[in-house]
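anyone seen this seq b4? input:
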Amino acid sequence: MACTTILVGKNASYDGSTMVARNDDSGSGHFTAKKFVVVQPEEHPAVYRSVISHVEVPLPGHALRMTAMPNAVEGEGIWAAAGVNAAHVGMTATETITSNPRVLGADPLVVYQPAKGERPEVPGGIGEEDIVCLVLPYIRSAREGVVRLGELLRTYGTYEMNGIAFQDVNEIWWLETIGGHHWMARRVPDDSYVVMPNQLGIDSFDFADACGAQENYMCSEDLKDFVDKHHLDLSLDGSFNPRDAFGSHDDADHVYNTPRAWFMLRHLNPNTWVWEGPDADYTPHSDDLPWCMVPERKITPEDVKYLLSSHYQGTPYDPYAAYGDPKSKGAYRTIGINRNSFMALTQMRPDLPEEFRTVEWVAYASNAFNTMVPFYANVDTTPAYLACTTGEVSTESFYWVSRMIAAMADAAYGKSIFHIERYEEGVLSATRALLNAYDEKQAQEADPARRAALRTEANEAIARELKARAADTLNKVLFELSCTMKNAFSRSDA
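predicted toks r here
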């Protein structure tokens, strides 16, 4: 999937949380309805079968409960996408990334081959459809997630290039697949953030650590031999750059991918480098944008949402701007795009008890026109307003209301954008207040069962507040769009 990911180390965040966020985007020309649900241990099968690749994977016993963001319409697989398990480990999968023919020729992708004549079908590898279901219920730390997925890739391979993030309260790990069976992973530095725009991103790698202590790096056991055998190291000075070895630097990247990273880095580090003009250190076309950076100030969930909603505000490339050269507008693929399916931001707050430490911020549809909402992750159910999505358009579904708000606000942007701004600020303020209140209620409650009930109660209260404000905003943007109808006439009947 075409996605954008942000990873924030604990010392780079405003409250010491690890934060992992990703926009899940539908492919061009279609939209994927999503829901936010809890998957119970008994719902996991003994043997998993992929719809796309037909691969069958036996699963371990003793699965953990987890949250997930699966497809709302059945038929194409689960696509669980992002979630947190009962051991308070988070995962988001996947960010589609790029590679090059040298890698794919040396370790081809494992693609499903249907039966033909007397030739039986040949199952493919695992992919985005499958990865969360195969990994998240069975791990108890971010590192364990890297190890389990690495073993699955070695055994079954993959039919696509992907990036996957694993998170616990102490660490964030980013794993990138390399060809059909190889992979590498790097720990996000605690004082840094990472931005990922559909490209292979890791720009330095320590094989000595990966093959030894594994403090900050892990990889396939034979990755160094694989690099040497196939002459993948392109460095002149011996400083191995995985982005050069395994990734791509295509012209298409400079329209679709790198500008997104440029905007996010520019926003969080505006004074660190020169970002514009003839003397710029980095431009939207730079292939050497840093994989991670120390921000100029600590990062909040609101910062992450702003970046994942970006349409290049404040630059000549904003398709909604009323200024600038029309030829520049819309030149680059925006982050907040029409086909955003959802955004999930997992925040693990270290200063709170484990039971209610983890919050999942959820948004549906185009991030340029929606709002995100916090929910406790350690629950047995999620509110119907977020869980009840089907293929049928309904104002009882947050997904569909968000889609409608976005389409109407886009069509009447100048009249509607201030409604969107008030909507987002109002929801964030009101739901943060509810979250703060229920944090305090749980802190004062000694009974674990009662604390669990309070989390469910809080999520329902947050959903009610959200539903009321979303309905009000839908009403307002509908009015603005209705006033611009082509058959409008200024004379009244009176």
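Residues 448-482 form the longest helix (35 residues). The chain has two domains: 4-348, 386-489. kinda curious what u guys think
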